[in-house]
Protein 1
Amino acid sequence: MFIWRGKLQKGYKSSQNIANFLVLVDIWCDMSDNKIHVYLMPGMAANSSIFEDIKLPENQFEIHTLDWFVPEKGMGLADYAQKMCENIPESDPVLVGVSFGGMLVQEMAKIIPTRKVIVVSSVKSKHELPKRMIFAKYTKVHKLLPTGLVNNVELLAKYAFGETVTKRLHLYEKYLSIRDKYYIDWSIDQIVNWSQETPSKNVVHIQGDRDAVFPISNIKDCIPVKNGTHTMIIHRYRWFNEHLPTIILK
């Protein structure tokens, strides 16, 4: 009788331990579910390593990164956005897009419900595009660009970041890894022909006052970043780490 009682007690304790463990798993899952999922989309030709220094409080946010893929023939930006949305299983995410990635996340927000859309170094409508891009749209002059030389990192940096590379060439080689000619041609064409008339209501725009690609003089209703250039997501990451949590939660 004593032996059986001992076995029962051990069995009861074992069951208790399992039950306690399952409770902890449930609590952890609830905590994970309560986090805000933030998806980061880089700019044209750039990969997600541009976000390597972006840090948000881990008890509140879950960071995910997205990367470009070479579009199928005949694929428009809306179709591309639909395909990219397949990488987002969570509901009501925050989408953060840089430059051309900012245009893309706005298209994605037309397909899936979002908590907030944040565009960085980008535009919110075709009316914020600089005159040279509007000129390119009507003259098709952008199709004459020597994109076959995309393996020339200095030239690619000029296309993607709007600046001449004079220092830290190895970093640009790291950041700009999407060097497919068809993708570059497609991206430039999608940018100059973007047709969005008015910004969506839940879009927050962060723009550097020294952005050479999308000058702030053309931008309306944005959060300006003093001395911020088109690459400020890399060089001014401390600003984003400090302000993004508040911007997301606001």
Protein 2
Amino acid sequence: MTAKLKWLFALGFALVFIAGVATGVFAGAWRAKHVHVVKHHGPHPRMAERMIERFERELDLTPEQLALTRPIVEETARKLSAIREETGRRVSATLEESHQQIAPHLSPAQQEQLKEMKSRHRHILKMKRKHRGERRERRTARWRQEAGEPALEASRPEEP
């Protein structure tokens, strides 16, 4: 093998290695995002209904038991939703407080960059909420179709 050919093989190997690393990074980031969303999305709009269906199916609840347990499950879903909302507010307040404490230690250019970072973060959250709403609407339409209910054009599930 000539020296030029060896260099081409080494370069090809390096490019394949870099492509593999990049693929791993992107796949890992996607997976981490997916796991985070699945674990931290809060009470599902139909969480109470699904819990009731599961209890009814697996515990073979009588109609009387179902009538007694439904309000408990619905209240649990409301409480979980409130906990999630409160946690979100506390996280936001804590982050804002830390930014206010950090800002005096930064140069004016860094302070401006911090403001831009916060603006980008708010934009990302806004887009996630928008896409979450769109996914929720598609999911609700699918549930309605599966249940044999008429599809609503602008259907939104009731929040617990």
Protein 3
Amino acid sequence: MVRLTGLVAFLGFVLPLVVGQALPLHSSSRWILDNNGERVKLRCVNWAAHMETNIPEGLHRQSMEYLVDWIKRQGFNCVRLTYSIDHALNPSIKVSDSFIKAASDANVPLDAMQQLYSMVVQKNPWIANASTRDVFGALIDKLWYVPPPPFPTQQTPN
């Protein structure tokens, strides 16, 4: 199946790491503004997830938590997360099955792909029972950060 290498919906799959910005974001003319009307400058990083395995790249080297923390530490406030047509059409495939299919699709020996899968699970044990949709969902949950209000909201008595 044809891979979609550059599909990014600007404010659909641009996942903000919202720090100090009043939500929701909106546009006015050519500007992106926060809820207070202040301009928001997006500092984005691309995270490829459109390759044959249909999960974000790099999970065989580091845990998802480490990678998300690294992105935040570098000062990025959004992530352009790519995905493939295969993932869009079949998001419920187990990650283990996705690696088996990837071996065939990429014309790579199955043993090599299974070794790569083992490295992913070693760094991210929860992926062993996950679907590719579960991996994307977990990543989105970890990337989306809204700080708590600075002080508890107090209601004035009537």
Protein 4
Amino acid sequence: MKSKSLKQGTKIEMEHTKGNKFVEKKRSKSPKDMARKIAKDHVEEMGNSYYPELKRMEGRIKRKKVNK
């Protein structure tokens, strides 16, 4: 697994772990550890292009909203 994909994915997945009550109850893992695990699972399942494609898709959606 490429570390660039994992780093990018961890950063993106942090938005799902910050303030998440499930993550806060599960004290054995930090929010960053949980985000890294989620990112690793996504990259293993979908491939290294998962997060770059996700960013492009989000960008297209944002541009459509602005242009309405």
